[in-house]
Design brief:
Number of helices: 8
Order of helices and strands: EHHHEHHHEHEEEHEE
CATH class: Alpha Beta
Number of strands: 8
Helix content: 25-40%
Shape: globular
Strand content: 25-35%
Largest sheet: 8 strands, mixed
CATH topology: Peroxisomal Thiolase, Chain A, domain 1
Number of domains: 1
Distance between the termini: 17 Å
């Protein structure tokens, strides 16, 4: 792409997504005709592929990421989980308990780390492959794709990417720059497949408020074309070949 600061080409082998009211690719294709917004009804994905004992330990944000990952799982030994808010809901529960002088939940404490979702995924699959958990202040999708692309260039045959989030608890209202979204998006990347190209470039003033993961989910549901996300004078652009 002309005028791009950098461009990365990836091979898209498969994708899958889950959000409240959007449980199949057909539902996502219908949704893609409108704005990239998801109405949150409070439901959580079932994550039926995961053993019940581990599933009970997974919080809602974990479940979003795990469901997305399992929907595209094949032979990938490399996984990248990207979530902006991570375990902030668990952390809020722990902080409120501390403020009230109450004992902390051992389960919430043990799973309050940012890589909890990727850890549960590895344990459930007994997978010792490389796994990364990252945050990037709303740009998790772009950074996760860069990480996955780097892993493939270093020799990984495939890489699994799971982007997932839900809005923080009300405790944090007014204290974060928000693009709200409750969803999980999974991508399986590797050699071959369709070309998914990602470019970073300068951008003038543009409307904000969209979510990177939902913008790409709409592009994937449409099947081809371009998606764009901009902030602070820069823009990420994704192009998917037909």
């Amino acid at each position: 792409m002309t005028n791009a600061w950098c461009t990365v080409s990836l091979g898209l082998l498969d994708w899958g997504a889950w959000a409240p009211g959007l449980h199949s690719k057909e539902a996502w294709r219908d949704w893609a005709a409108g704005p990239a917004v998801v109405k949150d009804d409070g439901t959580s994905p079932p994550v039926e592929a995961m053993a019940a004992l581990l599933r009970r330990r997974a919080g809602r944000n974990d479940r979003l990421g795990l469901e997305a990952a399992w929907r595209v799982l094949a032979g990938a030994g490399v996984s990248v989980f990207g979530t902006r808010h991570g375990q902030v809901a668990r952390s809020a529960v722990l902080l409120e308990a501390l403020a009230q002088g109450l004992p902390l939940s051992p389960m919430d404490f043990s799973l309050s780390v940012h890589n909890a979702s990727s850890g549960l995924f590895s344990i459930a699959r007994q997978d010792r492959g490389a796994s990364t958990a990252l945050a990037a202040s709303g740009e998790e999708l772009a950074v996760a794709l860069l990480e996955a692309g780097g892993q493939i260039l270093e020799g990984a045959p495939e890489a699994l990417v799971s982007i997932h989030d839900e809005p923080p608890p009300a405790l944090y209202d007014g204290h974060w720059r928000g693009e709200e979204g409750t969803f999980g998006l999974g991508l399986r990347l590797g050699h071959g497949g369709r070309r998914l190209t990602m470019s970073l470039m300068a951008s003038g003033p543009e409307p904000e408020g969209s979510v990177q993961g939902l913008e790409l989910a709409r592009l994937l549901a449409l099947g081809s074309g371009q998606a764009r996300w901009a902030r602070d004078g820069r823009a990420w652009v994704w192009e998917l070949e037909a």
